[in-house]
């Protein structure tokens, strides 16, 4: 009978040890989750700061923003002129004319 009690006692000790490991793992997982949330909060704060700084620049230097927008418009216009010249060239040359007409303007 005492051997049976010793056997049950060993099983109970094993179960308690498993429970302790399970609880420790749970607390470690909770700690990792809290760290992850803190990191995410840090990333969100950095994004907010970048957006805030960008809006501050727009508010404080509208002329710089206007010049930047003008430069973008000039760049887009330059690309449009370049594409227009390519289209004119492909319409007037042999191989490119056939290819351009086939791809863009099917009969």
Quickly give the structural class: mainly alpha
* Outline: elongated
Q: What is the average per-residue confidence, as pLDDT, rounded to a whole number?
A: 79
Report the order of strands and helices. HHH
Number of helical runs? 3
Number of strands: 0
Give the low-pLDDT segments: none
Report the sheet with the most strands, covering strand number, pairing sense and barrel closure: none
Radius of gyration over C-alpha positions, nearest whole angstrom: 35 Å
Instruction: Give the termini separation.
Output: 100 Å
Total domain units: 2
Report helical residue fraction: over 70%
Strand content: under 5%
Give the topology.
Elements: H1 2-60, H2 62-92, H3 94-103
Helix pairs in contact: 2-3
What do you see in this structure?
- With 107 residues, the chain is mostly helical.
- It folds into 2 domains: 1-60; 62-107.
- It has helices at 2-60, 62-92, 94-103.
- The chain is elongated and about 100 Å long.
- The protein starts with a helix and ends with a helix.
């Amino acid at each position: 009978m005492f051997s049976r009690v010793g056997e049950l006692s060993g099983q109970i000790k094993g179960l308690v040890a498993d429970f302790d490991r399970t609880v420790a793992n749970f607390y470690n997982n909770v700690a990792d989750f809290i760290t992850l949330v803190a990191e995410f909060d840090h990333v969100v704060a950095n994004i907010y700061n970048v957006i805030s700084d960008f809006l501050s620049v727009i508010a404080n230097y509208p002329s710089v923003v206007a010049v930047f927008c003008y430069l973008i418009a000039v760049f887009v216009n330059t690309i449009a002129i370049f594409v227009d010249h390519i289209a004119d060239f492909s319409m007037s040359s042999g191989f490119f004319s056939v290819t351009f007409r086939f791809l863009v303007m099917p009969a």
